[in-house]
Specification:
Number of helices: 6
Shape: globular
Helix content: 10-25%
Strand content: 15-25%
Distance between the termini: 18 Å
Strand order of the largest sheet: 3-4-7-6-8-12
Number of domains: 1
Radius of gyration: 17 Å
Oligomer: single chain
CATH topology: CNF1/YfiH-like putative cysteine hydrolases
CATH superfamily: CNF1/YfiH-like putative cysteine hydrolases
CATH class: Alpha Beta
């Protein structure tokens, strides 16, 4: 589990970016697979999630997970949800409610407002980032009273530029949207590479959030011990596990 250097200073919240170490799953899911949507054994996934809840210090029934859809949909959580919400971002000010995000190369992001005691957890792959999940989440936080200068944003472990090869149509889509997006791409040996985490950071900066931390762990690299969709596809595996990231107000 990795922690943010910025968030660890705050005693009111608990958080963690988990890799695959220490779980109950076997085979291609070996370790702490928390992907309920994977083809792993459900009992093992549930045991993994329980282990995460114990580590964070929340009741397993108080962990909110989304049906993630690479969207810009944000939900404010006022109570424990029995039905899984569809979207890619959660906000709460309720104590004991843990917000969880599942990833396998996409970026998990935490936002903390220490003035209003608000937390957010969001999932941003390239599609969600392109559709402005960051902007939508910040607008929702603003409607709850947040001032962007007070916010702390943590961009968690995700695939890094050197391993994120994309096609021409991907590159053109981003450049057509904004010419300045060229700075997030590298072209090397006729291959194009994209920086997801710095694209996300740039959106925060444009909106006035200056207090940002990037957890510099590349999920694609085997020695970092994360589940990676891209690595699994490269190795011709038929599925992959999901990493979990959780934040909670104590």
């Amino acid at each position: 589990m990795f922690k943010s250097k910025k968030l660890i200073k705050f005693k009111k919240i608990r958080h963690g970016f988990f890799n695959r170490k220490g779980g109950f799953s076997k085979g291609i899911y070996e370790g702490l697979n928390c992907g309920l949507g994977s083809k792993d054994k459900l009992k093992d996934v549930k045991k993994n999630i329980e282990k995460v809840c114990k580590k964070i210090g929340c009741n397993k029934n108080n962990l909110i997970l989304l049906n993630q859809t690479h969207s810009n949909i944000v939900h404010k959580v006022n109570k424990i949800q029995k039905k899984k919400l569809k979207g890619d971002s959660l906000i709460t000010n309720k104590e004991g409610v843990a917000l969880g995000i599942l990833t396998a190369d996409c970026a998990p992001i935490f936002i903390y407002d220490p003035v209003n005691n608000l937390i957010s957890a969001l999932h941003a792959g390239w599609k969600g980032a392109y559709k402005k999940i960051i902007t939508t989440t910040l607008k929702k936080l603003a409607s709850e009273g947040s001032n962007f200068k007070d916010l702390i944003a943590i961009i968690g472990p995700c695939i890094h530029k050197r391993n994120y090869e994309v096609r021409n149509d991907f590159f053109n889509k981003f450049i057509k949207k904004e010419e300045s997006n060229k700075k997030f791409f590298n072209i090397k040996n006729n291959k194009i590479y994209f920086s997801l985490n710095y694209y996300i950071k740039d959106e925060f900066l444009k909106l006035g959030v200056k207090n940002i931390e990037i957890i510099k762990k590349d999920t694609y690299l085997l020695n970092n011990n994360f589940f990676s969709a891209r690595r699994s596809i490269r190795n011709k595996l038929n599925d992959y596990g999901r990493n979990i990231s959780v934040i909670m107000i104590k």
